[in-house]
Structure formats: structure tokens, C-alpha cells
Design goal:
Elements lengths: L2 E4 L7 E5 L4 H13 L3 E4 L5 H10 L3 E5 L4 H12 L5 E5 L10 H9 L3 E4 L8 E4 L7 E5 L4 H10 L7 E6 L5 H13 L4 E4 L2 E4 L8 E4 L4 H13 L5 E5 L12 H4 L5 E6 L2 E6 L7 E5 L7 H11 L2 E5 L11 H11 L4 E3 L4 E3 L9 E3 L5 H7 L8 E3 L12 H7 L3 E4 L1
Parallel strand pairs: 2-13, 3-12, 4-5, 8-9, 16-17, 20-21
Antiparallel strand pairs: 1-21, 1-22, 5-7, 6-7, 9-11, 10-11, 13-15, 14-15, 17-19, 18-19
This protein binds shikimate-3-phosphate and phosphoenolpyruvate.
């Protein structure tokens, strides 16, 4: 699907949008529910990634295809490895078969798991024959993806002796690890995270518990970007959010103050208000705790004609696409000067955007969604715009609700 995007007639938007549950919280909660069926979940994500996780958990044999969903790939690897009597081939999209999983496979193997590579060593697809995992101590590198750590933590309470993890090297995407531990806490599992050690106690049964998933903060980022690019006086309300979030991307409320966007929390909603113009012509952020909002911030800066230096982006090359390379190419189509290295991106201030651009999306939902708000500054085309369904199937409809003109080509 190719979409032609144009700005709303009124750049002082006053609208409310309801966003569904966080895909990160959803996929964790679903796995915990598979281990402890007396868990109930509210406000599930309606994303493709949530759907493939649910489908995957329902299977015991045969092929399980999780498409592009990194969390489903990593969490289900740990799940199936620990389930005696289940045997699956866990696979995904072409890109998923290029996203590394060796660190997790080796950690699980050292706990006693039977996992074999079906094609290339270190990458999906994996043939997993579930077993009772008897060992309870493992060390693993923590600087590649926090999802490997969360995967182990999620199955940890179901292991005979729980789990003790030693994290080696600099720990990346830490809030996602804390989210996993917080959800374990909500179902009554005891955990401790001190320095580079994490301990999870075993738990056979839990009390009946309802996990209420907060809406997705990464999805909210696109509305922060829109608010930042709109006129002072713009107000966009998003539900359902809370001030004490488990999601690291809630740092948006702080970061977007620099762009003149104030956030107020009330009645399970946030109100984003454009209260002033952007305060600087160059901004710097280390996003190692919030890698999924890097694309959003880079595009906001382009739209506002300011420069930025974003660091802590070492995980971006192994996500849905190489996001650093993709950003350089696509920002460049609008005339921007962008330098990248293995962990950072620098954008020079750019006052006029080039016209007649078609943005490519590389099977990456966040490439499509991060560029969407830029229609406030220039008309352009988005190729393969349906990719948004990975995390936010209603994204383009919600932009229409805000008054954007969006037509199929
Ligand atoms: O655990 C999670 O839910 C996630 C962790 C992050 O991945 P990395 O730890 O690989 O950076 C993030 O980018 C991803 O979208 C979701
Ligand atoms: C990186 C992402 O997802 P995953 O790693 O779960 O595929 C994302 O949603 O930005």
C-alpha cells in the first residue's frame, strides 16, 4: 500500500486518540499467562506482534512463524525450551532470520535446553525440543539485546530453583528488563536486580491476578512529534496512560519539553500541549534506554529545522531493519545531511525540505510511523505503509482523525 500524505488544514489540532496496550507488556503478560493460567489480561495490544505471540503460545508441535516480532521470537524460544513434551520449529520473516539469537540460545543450552539451528548458526529458525531445565545459574552478554534477558526472566519462576543471571558488559535497554521484573512482581514472584546480578525465585502457583496493560508509549511518540510540529495551542489527548509507567519510552514526556510540548496526566490519559516554540537549534540525547523513539526524534528535528546528535543507538542496526542506515537514506531524501556511525546519528539543521519524496519503510513499522508527522511540513508518499500493523494497525486512521489527508495511490 502506497499512501500520499498531506497536512491537516488546521495546524492547531484539538483531538483525542485511544491507543491500545503496549506490545512489550502484552507479550510478557501473554507468556506469563501461559505459565500461570489464572492470570487475566486487560487492554491487550491489537498489534501483529501480539497476535503472533498468542498464536505461537497455542502451539505444541510443528512450525511456529512469528514473522517480524523480535519479542515473540526471543520469548517463545525460552518458553518452548522449558516446556517438556513440546517440539517446534520457531521461525520468522527473512529479516528475523538475520537478527541474532546466539546469546539467548547459548544461555538456554547452558541451562540444559535442546535447541538446534535449522539454517545458519546463531540465527533463526530454531528447532526446539522442550525439556525440564534443571540448572539455575547462567551468565550472558547484556549489550546486544535486553530481550534475551527478559526471555530468561519470564520463564525463571517456572524453573525448579528459579534463576540467577550474571549480566556481562554494559547493560542495554535497561527499562525493558525492569518492566519484566515489575510484571513478575505484580504476579507475586520475588526478584532482585543489583549491579550485574538478577535473581528470580521459583513460584509454583500464583494468586488470581489481572494484569492491566498500559497503552503503548512508543506509539505515543508519533503524537509527541505531531504536537511538536503543530502550532502553539495544539492539544492532543491520548489514553490510557499513567504517570508511573513500566515503559521506558515514557521518557518522551521529559524529552519533548525541549520541543515545547508539555504533558499532563489525568484520568488515565495524557494531554500533550504545544506551549512554546522549540527552545534550541541543536539537541542531544542518549537513547540506550529508549531505542525505539530514536527515529521519531530524528524526524521531529528534521521537521523543525533543528540539528541533533543521538547516541546509544548500538542496537538499531539489528532491529526490523538497520535503522541507522535507513534513517540516513530517508532523511537524506528530504535534503538532510546525516552522519552515522555504529552507535550514533548526527543531523544538521535543514531549513527547506525537498519535495516529491517517496519514503521507503524497509519492513519497519517505525520507519513509516516516524515519518508520518512530517506531512505537517511537506507532502510526500510512504511506500509499503501497511507495515505499521506490526505494532499499531490503526495508525493511519488515527492520523486521519487528526485531520491529515491520507489517500491510497
Ligand atoms: O523487551 C522488549 O519488549 C523490547 C526491547 C527493546 O529491544 P532491545 O533490548 O533489543 O533493544 C525494544 O527495542 C523492543 O522494541 C522491545
Ligand atoms: C525493535 C522493535 O521490535 P522487536 O525487536 O520486538 O521486533 C520495535 O518495535 O521497535
Amino acid at each position: 500500500m502506497r499512501l500520499q500524505l498531506s497536512a491537516p488544514d488546521d495546524r492547531k489540532i484539538q483531538k483525542a486518540i485511544a491507543i491500545t496496550g503496549s506490545k512489550s507488556e502484552t507479550n510478557r503478560s501473554l507468556l506469563l499467562q501461559a505459565l500461570f493460567p489464572n492470570i487475566k489480561i486487560e487492554n491487550l495490544s491489537n498489534s501483529d506482534d501480539g497476535a503472533v505471540m498468542q498464536k505461537g503460545l497455542a502451539k505444541s508441535t510443528g512450525e511456529v512463524d512469528i514473522h517480524h516480532a523480535g519479542t515473540a521470537m526471543r520469548f517463545l524460544t525460552a518458553y518452548f525450551a522449558s516446556q517438556e513434551g513440546k517440539q517446534v520449529v520457531l521461525t520468522g520473516s527473512q529479516r528475523m532470520q538475520e537478527r541474532p539469537i546466539k546469546v539467548l540460545v547459548e544461555a538456554l543450552q547452558s541451562l540444559g535446553a535442546d535447541i538446534q539451528y535449522e539454517k545458519s548458526a546463531g540465527y533463526p529458525p530454531l528447532k526446539i525440543t522442550g525439556r525440564k531445565l534443571k540448572r539455575s545459574q547462567v551468565s550472558l552478554p547484556a549489550n546486544i539485546s535486553s530481550q534475551y534477558i527478559s526471555a530468561l526472566l519470564l520463564i525463571a519462576p517456572s524453573l525448579e530453583n528459579g534463576l540467577e543471571l550474571e549480566l556481562i558488559g554494559k547493560i542495554t535497554s535497561v527499562p525493558y528488563i525492569k518492566m519484566t521484573l515489575a510484571l513478575l512482581g505484580q504476579i507475586g514472584v520475588q526478584t532482585a536486580f543489583e549491579g550485574n546480578m538478577i535473581k528470580v525465585c521459583p513460584k509454583e502457583n500464583i494468586a488470581d491476578t489481572t494484569l492491566v496493560v498500559e497503552s503503548d508509549w512508543s506509539s505515543a511518540s508519533y503524537f509527541y512529534s505531531i504536537t511538536a510540529m503543530c502550532e502553539v495551542g495544539t492539544e492532543i489527548q491520548l489514553s490510557s496512560y499513567k504517570q508511573s509507567s513500566l515503559q521506558g519510552d515514557s521518557v518522551l514526556a521529559e524529552i519533548y519539553k525541549d520541543f515545547g510540548v508539555e504533558t499532563t496526566f489525568s484520568n488515565n490519559a495524557i494531554l500533550l500541549k504545544k506551549t512554546s516554540d522549540v527552545k534550541s537549534n541543536h539537541l542531544e540525547y542518549n537513547l540506550s534506554n529508549a531505542p525505539d523513539i530514536a527515529q521519531t526524534i530524528a524526524v521531529t528535528c528534521l521537521g523543525l529545522g533543528i540539528g541533533c546528535h543521538l547516541t546509544g543507538l548500538h542496537t538499531l542496526p539489528i532491529k526490523e531493519t538497520d535503522r541507522l542506515a535507513a534513517l540516513q537514506t530517508e532523511l537524506g531524501k528530504f535534503g538532510a545531511t546525516v552522519d552515522i556511525d555504529s552507535e550514533s546519528l548526527t543531523l544538521q539543521p535543514q531549513s527547506n525540505l525537498k519535495g516529491e519524496v517517496a519514503v521507503d519503510t524497509y519492513n519497519d513499522h517505525r520507519m513509516a510511523m516516524a515519518f508520518g508527522p512530517l506531512a505537517l511540513k511537506a507532502d510526500f508518499v510512504v511506500n509499503d505503509a501497511g507495515v505499521v500493523s506490526k505494532s499499531y494497525p490503526h495508525f493511519w486512521n488515527d492520523l486521519k482523525t487528526l485531520g491529515f489527508s491520507i489517500s491510497k495511490m
